[in-house]
Design a protein that fits this description.
The complex is a heterodimer of chains A (about 120) and B (about 160).
Chain A lengths: L1 H9 L4 E5 L2 H7 L3 E4 L14 H17 L5 E4 L22 H20 L7
Parallel strand pairs in A: 1-2, 2-3
Chain B lengths: L7 H11 L27 E6 L15 E4 L30 H10 L4 E2 L2 E4 L6 H19 L3 E5 L2
Parallel strand pairs in B: 1-3, 1-4, 1-5
Antiparallel strand pairs in B: 2-4
The chains are: A mainly alpha (about 120), B alpha/beta (about 160).
Chain lengths: ~120, ~160
């Protein structure tokens, strides 16, 4: 998504990204980024929390006009819960997961080879 | 417990290493970032919404392509079962948590935002950055130009 924002901006269309992967987006470099420190999947707010979702979008619209230079990052004051336990769970690898992950990797590579052979994979 | 933002690049590298992939993904990085100043206030501008979600429940074997949907007839569902997001913690059942249809309509109604284009667009997230840069991003730009887009709001899952 960062690459698409850069392409639109290079061609005259101002952009704002709302997202939760701060490291990935800032590593790429984008014109305007509203960072919401929430689990991946719900960048606009907690499901059902309409007030939070409206506030986040309002901040993003403001950012179009407030940013004066590239790589402008604003952090929204949103919080997923009182606990930060959710942070450790994305792509968590517990010792008991290793055999299952290795098998999943094997299956994934087999599927990729099958798709390549059938011409269903887009150019890499 | 840390309040620091999650290091998704580190997590992803470790996850794929555990799956036996020996070549670590190299995320896009640029020394220069483009910047287009606004040509007029957002209250007079037409905005396009862009998502990484899909119009249908894609399978892992489906080729991902740029797609567009209508803002005039609100989608009941958008899909991301083939994408990476934190399914151990949350879900995609509330469209408003990742696709800001209602807040943008409210912004137009209040006069904060000029208008919305008739279409929104879906960008496929691709392993291949070349595919994004040479094919998908130009396709999105073409569609935005067709729609008279003056601002783009991008919301990746």
């Amino acid at each position: 998504m960062s690459l698409t924002a850069r392409h639109l901006e290079e061609n005259g269309i101002p952009t704002v990204i709302i997202g939760s992967a701060l490291d990935i987006v800032t590593h790429c470099g984008v014109p305007r980024f509203l960072f919401t420190d929430l689990p991946l999947g719900n960048p606009l707010g907690i499901p059902g929390d309409k007030r939070m979702q409206h506030e986040v979008v309002s901040l993003a619209l403001t950012l179009f006009e407030s940013a004066t230079q590239a790589n402008t990052v604003v952090r929204a004051k949103v919080r997923w819960s009182d606990s930060d336990d959710w942070r450790s769970r994305y792509a968590q690898i517990r010792p008991e997961d290793r055999a299952r992950l290795a098998a999943a990797g094997e299956a994934r590579r087999a599927l990729r080879d099958q798709l390549k052979a059938s011409g269903k994979v887009r150019d890499s | 417990m840390s309040h620091e933002p999650t290091r998704y690049m580190d997590r992803t590298r470790e996850f794929y290493a555990a799956q036996g992939f020996d070549k670590a993904y190299v995320w896009a990085h640029h020394a220069h970032t483009p910047f287009q100043a606004l040509k007029k206030p957002i209250a007079e501008s037409r905005l396009t919404l862009i998502t990484t979600a899909a119009l249908y429940d894609r399978q892992a074997t489906d080729t991902r392509e740029v797609a567009s949907g209508s803002m005039r007839s609100r989608p009941e569902h958008l899909y991301g079962n083939d994408l990476a997001w934190d399914r151990t913690v949350t879900h995609m059942d509330d469209l408003g948590s990742f696709f800001p249809f209602d807040p943008l309509e409210a912004a137009v109604a209040s006069g904060t935002l000029g208008a919305l284009t008739d279409r929104f667009h879906c960008v496929p997230t691709e392993y291949s950055q070349r595919r994004t840069v040479e094919s998908d991003a130009p396709e999105i730009l073409d569609r935005c130009r067709e729609d008279g887009t003056e601002l783009a709001l991008l919301v990746p899952l």
